[in-house]
Structure formats: structure tokens, C-alpha cells
Amino acid sequence: MFAALSTVVMGSVAGYSFLKSRTNPMSDADKINRIFLNSGLYVTENKKLKNIRLFKKRKIENGVEYVFQLPLGMPFKEVENHKNVIQDGLNVKGFVILSFRDFKQINWRKNPIPQIRKLLDKKLKAIKEVELEFDGMLKVRVYEDLLSERIDWEDSLLGKSWSIPVGMTRNGMIYHDFEELPHLLVAGSTGYGKSQFLKMMITSLVMQEGNNVEFTLIDLKGGTAFQRFKDLRQVKHYGKSPEDASKVLPSIQKGMNEKLEWIVDKGFEDVNEAGDPKRHFIFIDEAADIADDKDAMEIVKDIARRGRAAGYRLIYATQYPTTETIPSQVKRNIVSRISFVLDTNTASRAVLDDGGAEELPDIKGRAIYKRLKKQIVQTPYITNSQIEERVSPHITIRPRSENDESLSLDKEAEDGSYTIES
pLDDT band for position 413 (50/70/90)? Predict the structure, then answer.
């Protein structure tokens, strides 16, 4: 047995040495350097070619971080635009070679051949994923496994107060704090997780701040996304058509103006200083449907511009991002954005001021979250049954008109909200 195993081991080592001598495989650092050269990512200085130079590398969880020094005159933006080229280059398959670390995983008490085949198959199918960062040095993080394709909802993901979960990165869950960044722009093609994300946000806010949160829900896809929330006691306004939106938005603006007047009269700067715990969230899903309504859009712009101090938070969502559907005044006042898969670079730039959303993998829930810099995240997936279980204690059944199953916006209450007309 010992002789047989020794023969297998020595044969494997000899085979490894032979392959290495014949193929002379490049390290990932060498490959990155070669990819830069082949892609024209270099500069010339005094007629000499200047390329990136490896400064150091370090092991990180599930991968390696390579730190390069960029030559003077090479902008990081140009490197970032070549991210897919770098990633594809690292995933080009040549000879698959097992390392001594691989051989240490083999249980030599069992037949080693199936185990070796499994290791080879795993290496053949492995896809490396790349992250880029620049802080004076170019950091290229090469991960051996892909980011998880699904994050199932658990209540442990909840944030605190007005901070809601956005998505999982390789470094853990990241959160969006609406006290720090009051508004959010959301975009994404149909079927990639935009509406699911909006529902997760509403559910999180109800669970975290049920006594202080108020909602205006304008669902311009006919009510399909938000209908399960319309009877929540926290919902002050609900609409499911452009006509509903044109009636609801003036009431929201009126309430915001009254809140701002109260704050100023009391000598405060904003709701935080005034000690007012209430926050009013205005969700508009498929906002492109009211982009041509000048009066409605003027109010949306006003909320984006002045809502922060009054405690009004705008979530502006669309699956058709363009310069027309996302007015510049809205965009300038919404620093934080999240985009799921989009079909073109132009659409991505309309949301993120940058490309990238068109290059996201075909994975539901995969998105780019942008504050000062972009992060790729996998957003949590919460089922409709999980939503109903968590929000049902907050439902208040209201009287409905006999012939209308939706909320009627024909009667305005004293507090400025619209209710069902009985």
C-alpha cells in the first residue's frame, strides 16, 4: 500500500513538474500586467513604455489582493472601464495544474483518482471575480469564487432606526441610512429585483420604525407592487395611476410646507433639531409614467430639494432611466443610487453617472449601489409570504366604496391625506 501510494504521489509530483516546465504558467499578477499591455493600458515617457508595477500582494478571504503602482498619466477611470477585460483575461483556461495545497486535500486512504478528477473539474469550472479600487495605489482583488447569487431574508438583517439593508458584499451587509442620505434613486430592468427591493425597504421600515414612519405609495404599474401595503396604518396616501399621482402629490407638498413652517417658527433648522421622530417616505415606482406631467414633476423636484429638513424622504424608481425620466434637478438632489441590470451603457449613466449596470451578470437581485463610490451587492430576497407575516399586525381595514376595489382619492381628510370615500 505504501509503495503504491508513494508511486502515485511521486508520479503526480513528476507530472506537475513536467507540466510546469512545459507550460510555464503565469501568475495572476503577471497576467494582469500582460492584460494591461495588450489592452493599451500604458503610457510612454521619454519614448519608453511605462506599465503598472506590482508593489505588493496579500492574501484576503477567498482571494488575493494585488497592489500596483500606476504610471503617471494613467487615469484610474480608464482602468475601471477595462474591468471586464481584466476579469475575462484571468479566466482564460490553459493547462490546469494542481498545487501541493490541492494534493494535501486528497484522502490517500481512499482511491485518489476520483478525488484528483474532482479537483481538476473544480479548477476548470472556477470563475474568478475582480474588484478594483484606487486610493493612490491600484488595488486589484481577485476572488476565487463568485459573490453569492441569492441572499434569503432573515430578520437579523434588519438595521437600526432609519438605516435599511441594501445588499451583501464580500465584506458583509451594507446599509443605507436615510438620516445621512435622505433620498434614493432606484433603477433596473423588469424582472431583476427592483420592485422586490422596494418591498423589502418598506417592510424593513415598518419593522424598525412602525410608530414613526409614514408612507405615500405611488405604484404606477397599476398597483401590482405595493397593493399588499395599502391598508397599513402607516400609509397616508396611495395611488396606482398617473391621475392618482397628480392628486396625491399636491397634498404631500402641502404637508411638507406646513412642517417646514413649523420648524422655522420654532427656531429650528430641521426635524432632527426639532426632536420630531416622524419621517414620511414617498415611494414612486415607475416614475417614468409621470415624467411628462409638468406639475407633478415640479412637486417631485421640490420634495427632492427641500424634503430633507422636513423629514420627507423620496424614493424615485424607474425601469426606463433616461435624462427625460430622471430630471437633472431630481438627480442632483439624490446622491445615493442603486441600479439593477440595465440594457445599455446610456441607461446606466442616466442613473449612476457611469457605466456598469449594463455589465452586471444575469442574476436577479444583483445591483450596483453608489454613494461616493460604486459597490456591487446582492440584495436580500424577501418572499411575499414573509412580507405579509411581518406587516399584517400593522394593517387597518378601511371602508371601501361598493364599486371600487382601490383607494378613492376624491375625498381629502383634514390632515391633508386622502382616504377612501365610504
Answer: very low
